[in-house]
Design a protein that fits this description.
single chain; alpha+beta; Jelly Rolls; seven-stranded mixed β-sheet; two-stranded antiparallel ribbon
Length: 173
């Protein structure tokens, strides 16, 4: 019985913090006027995430699912059989960080594009294959990133993307 107060306090703290955003939280949706909202999923996804239009400096635009919470980032594109040609998933972090990605339980190969807080492409891991082994390789950027974009393998080269190019969140003219 003497552990009951500790248990009760732990439960109250847990549920009191569940949906709070940390101080300084930055969301890709901070300027909602620059987004094109779409309500359809971009692939055969499990949970339906917010979907926005992301355009590259060269004029190429794609539909991206926004993964900005721990749950959606942990799941990512795992267990999906298909990703539409002009679609992807944009991982949004609270602050610039060196992060790691792996291809555990993936069924499709991807290009992983590293993007900084100035919306500039820093680099890419191209044609990263799925991994169903017990131990999978980790992929990390060489510099801190604010965003990571996952798209179908070959997308980066096919669309003439380069390091230094900017991305934006707006409709293509």
């Amino acid at each position: 019985m003497r552990f009951f107060p500790i248990f009760l306090i732990s439960i109250l703290l847990f549920f009191g913090c569940v949906n709070e955003k940390p101080a300084g939280y930055v969301s890709v949706a901070k300027d909602q006027n620059n987004f094109s909202e779409e309500n359809k999923p971009v692939s055969n996804s499990n949970p339906v995430l917010k979907t926005k239009t992301l355009c590259f400096e060269n004029g190429k635009c794609i539909s991206v699912e926004i993964a900005e919470d721990f749950s959606s980032q942990a799941k990512g594109l795992m267990d999906r059989n298909f990703l539409a040609e002009n679609a992807g998933m944009l991982f949004v972090f609270e602050k610039e960080t060196i992060t790691s990605f792996w291809m555990k339980n993936m069924k499709i190969s991807l290009d992983i594009i590293w993007i900084d807080s100035n919306y500039a492409i820093l680099g890419v891991e191209e044609n990263v294959p799925p991994c169903n082994a017990a131990q999978c390789e980790f992929y990390s950027p060489k510099e801190k990133v604010m965003f990571v974009l996952e798209v179908n393998a070959g997308f980066f080269e096919k669309n003439d993307l380069n390091s230094g190019q900017k991305i934006g969140f707006f409709e293509k003219n």
